[in-house]
Amino acid sequence: MSKLLQIATGSLLVGVTVLGLKYAAYWVTGSVALYSDALESIVNVATALAALLTVRIAALPADTNHPYGHHKAEYFSAMLEGAMIIVAAILIMREAYHGFLQPKTLDAPLKGLLINGLATAINAVWCWVLISQGRRHRSPALAADGWHLLSDVVSSVGVALGVLLAVLTGWAILDPILAGIVAVNIVWSGWGVLKQSTGGLMDAAVPESMRLRIREIISRHAEGALEAHDVRTRHAGRVTFIEFHLVVPGQMTVAEAHDICDRLEAAIKAEDEHAVVTIHVEPEDKAKHAGVLVL
């Protein structure tokens, strides 16, 4: 089993464990805010399962029907996660509304808060694992899962403080109010996940810093060529696709031009091991006198 599949499987196990703890906290207290926290954990389990499936699909090699590979499958998991986060927020708002109309005193709040605190601590550790490993392996599904868990941790801390405040002040109305605030935070988190995933599905270019680095590499390692233009980039999961036109002197042989292309590809892959580089060689009369000048 690959490292990514191990992490995705771990997410599913962690999600089920945390869901059980958070529901236990709600069952002990009857808190609407803690119930909202448990509802979000149901989303965590569903999205962890989706991430596991899409990570498996993304790892499949290219085939006749998918010559560029299956890397974009992870974006579908992230899109599903964003949509389900928003659905969870709507359910929480519904519970918060009913709780606001009929606020009730909490049962065994300290015991429930301790159980919920244990679940929050587990989520805090695991979201750090997901975000760091998602960045390291450039996995949109794992990174999205990690950022969602981070928002869950923040919500859980806010819920715990609110429930504690409701107990100390005797204001039962604070419980559903906190649930509503959690729902708003979850909507914001879901929107962020959807926005990032849409960029991947729409073939958005790599970040500006990476584009500048690619242009610098081309300029420094294309000795013998004249210029490079029409540099295009896009991400597909862990893979970065880079394409550009390379202008060479008209009298240069095919072998010499090929050597320059090999040198450029090696230099770019040294910067990004997951890069797929496509270079179109053109004679000097095709120069645009724009783009990347070769040093």
Topology:
Blueprint: H1 3-29, H2 32-58, H3 73-101, H4 109-136, H5 140-169, H6 174-201, H7 208-221, E1 227-236, E2 239-248, H8 254-271, E3 275-283, E4 292-293
Parallel strand pairs: 2-3
Antiparallel strand pairs: 1-2, 1-4
Helix pairs in contact: 1-2, 1-4, 2-3, 2-5, 2-6, 3-5, 3-6, 4-5, 5-6, 7-8
Transmembrane segments: 44-63, 75-93, 113-131, 152-171, 177-194
Protein name: Protein p34
Membrane topology: Multi-pass membrane protein
Please provide a brief summary of the model.
This protein has 295 residues and is α+β, with helices and mostly antiparallel strands. It folds into 2 domains: 3-201, Cation efflux protein transmembrane domain (Alpha-lytic protease prodomain-like, Up-down Bundle); 208-293, Cation efflux protein, cytoplasmic domain (Alpha-Beta Plaits), CATH 3.30.70.1350.
Fold and architecture overview:
68% of the residues lie in helices and 11% in strands. The protein has 295 residues and is of the alpha+beta class. The two termini are 45 Å apart.
Helix content: 55-70%
Number of helices: 8
Kindly name the structural category. Answer: alpha+beta
Main sheet makeup: 4 strands, mixed
- The percent range for strand residues is 5-15%
Pfam family, one: ZT_dimer
Domain Cation efflux protein transmembrane: 11-202
Transmembrane segments: 44-63, 75-93, 113-131, 152-171, 177-194
Keywords: Cell membrane, Membrane, Transmembrane, Transmembrane helix, Transport
Key phrases:
single chain; 295 residues; alpha+beta; Alpha-lytic protease prodomain-like; Alpha-Beta Plaits
